[in-house]
Amino acid sequence: MKNSSDSNLLKLVEYHSRITPDRITSLEKGQIFVFGSNAAGMHGGGAAYTAMQLFGAILGQGDGLQGQSYAISTMEGIDAMRDNIKRFIDFARQHPELTFLVTRIGCGIAGYKVSDVAPLFADAVDVKNICLPLDFWKVIRG
């Protein structure tokens, strides 16, 4: 008989090809670095700074596609972040030719816990071109 941790592991194995790497320093063609930002687009730290330095994020643009990156504003409260994530998921559905590597948005400078943010990505489970951090998958599929 399988225990619950075996069952949880099997659920995660199903999504193994959609796990965002912990550290991203380069992207392949068609990959998009998805990072948490603020509405003003002041990409001064964390993944936002990486996005600006390496993947074409635009200073002053706090949401949407920019270069080989996509900003999701996370600093204006959980309800606003939920709306921004929904808009991102809709965008990803409309662009199946791209692969979106979602970082641990909202879990750094914004100060949220993975358990707060991961459920906001539940609608991304069936969107094959969205990759999520392993700890997000564990919350969503766990």
Walkthrough of the structure:
By secondary structure, the protein is an alpha/beta fold. It is built from five helices and five strands, in the order H-E-H-E-E-H-E-H-E-H. It has a five-stranded mixed β-sheet, with helices on both faces. Strand 2 and strand 3 (69-73) form a beta hairpin. The longest helix has 17 residues, at 78-94. The radius of gyration is 15 Å and the shape is globular. The model has no long low-confidence stretch (mean pLDDT 90).
Q: Looking at the structure, what is the overall shape? A: globular
Give the mean pLDDT: 90
The ordered string of helix (H) and strand (E) elements is HEHEEHEHEH
Number of helices: 5
Which percent bin holds the helix content? 25-40%
* Beta-strand content: 5-15%
Features:
single chain; 142 residues; alpha/beta; 5-stranded mixed β-sheet; 5 helices; 34% helix; 15% strand; globular
Helices and strands in order:
Blueprint: H1 4-13, E1 31-37, H2 46-54, E2 64-66, E3 69-73, H3 78-94, E4 99-102, H4 114-117, E5 130-131, H5 134-141
Parallel strand pairs: 1-3, 1-4, 4-5
Antiparallel strand pairs: 2-3
Summarize the structure.
By secondary structure, the protein is of the alpha/beta class. The chain contains five helices and five strands. The longest helix has 17 residues, at 78-94.
